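One such shown below:

_____
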Amino acid sequence: MAKGVVKQRKSRRCLWCIVAIVILGGIAGGIYYVVKKKILDKNSSSTSSLEDKYSDALKIAMQFFDVQKSGKLVDDKIPWRGNSGLKDGSEAKLDLSMGMYDAGDNVKFGFPMAFTATVLSWAILEYGEHMEHINQREPAENSLAWITDFLLNAHPSPNVLYIQVGDPKEDHKCWEKPEKMTTKRPLKLVNSSKPGSDVAAETAAALASASLVFKKTDSTYSSTLLKHAKQLFTFADKYKGSYTKSHPEVATYYNSTGYGDELLWAASWLYHATGDTTYLRYVTEENADKYAKVDGPTWFSWDNKLAGAQVLLSRLSFFGDKGAKGNSGIDDYKKSADELMCALLPDSPSATSSRTKSGLIWITKWDSLQHPVGSAFLAVLYSDYMRASDNEILSCGDDSFEPSDLRKFAQSQADYVLGDNPMDISYLVGYGDKYPEFVHHRGASIPVDATTGCTEGFKWLSSKKPNPNVAMGALVGGPFKNESFIDSRNNSMQTEPTTYNSAVLVGLLSSLVNTSFPVKSLNEN
């Protein structure tokens, strides 16, 4: 009996042990759940806060395209802008009234304008859903079409492309609003006797990439864009030469350092748009040896597209494109893109030393933000390609990095632009509490009701008062290497904004609005 009682007590004791374990486990689990939930909520809140910041910045950046528009404005969203350049192209019996002014003056340069369209297309194709989430896809597509309409009209026949409206030398003698321009608006073109492979190929890239953007919503327009893109690429490849050699006077403003990168860039976009492996062979066979072999990484900009082509072509490798399967040339582009990413990562053994003390990529004192913003855009694209294709490791020498490292780098460059810098200033006009007020921009600096001729307007250039009109969304030139910034209208090196830099910034900010995967094929949009 005693044994039975002992046995019974042991059983009861064990029962209570089980009950206690269950209760304690439930309490512990509840505590774990509450703590984990708080951590997740905190992380979610932090992520949401970041995404809100980039969303707000994107909405502002997108407005600069409206600031820069030429022509008869439709649904004008900028109160101090009006119709301008309505007779542009008339001397050639063409309508070149649309398009965008490149910067703070009143000239339309085709080379950087086409690059603006290509990058804006790329941003929409990769991150259109992000844009749509915050109602920015339609404005982006409208701005893109404003440029591509101009580019189509500027290409009246297969071997003719009009590349400039206005004379920058004469334009710079005046300080006047585009709505009140008094200077003549001469045209420049490239053709078979005055070739411009760089500008023609960049325009081909712009139209090919845009054809993908509009493929589902306007198939007729998309087909027209692609038709012109093919013609322009053929023209650029057949009649080789730099447009700044055909027109040396333009070199002061937008000098082209070569056309090989544009040919590769255009062929890459045409492959994405058509699936025609002829374009793939173009970039991987003989022309790869001619134009893609360089020592070390290059910097993505309106002049040099090679880094962009490397990342765009690496997309084919990441996502197993059928046409690129077994093509060792595509692998070479990916290796070059890997090298670029390793150069950008600050903790990589091959990290570039071309940075400020705060970590901003810094290459040149003129328009210094173009390179960090461009580098960040490529980095976040590469990060997303890696994530979406389950390629989680980037090897840089003996060190390994993850997609999150590239995204962190991209965010650091974006954050610097948005105010996380030694000057505590946002270089995006209209964003934050402190941003440049003396932007080098004719339209923004002259009061709406002012009457000025060519030279009378210079009093507004030298005025000590802030601009009466805010150039919303303008990305100014940026800081010097020592991270100083002088907010002066006469300091065009640092305070002049450009449309093409805004396109790259829109791409960067769009990528950071969300963390969803990109589409596996650009033809899916």
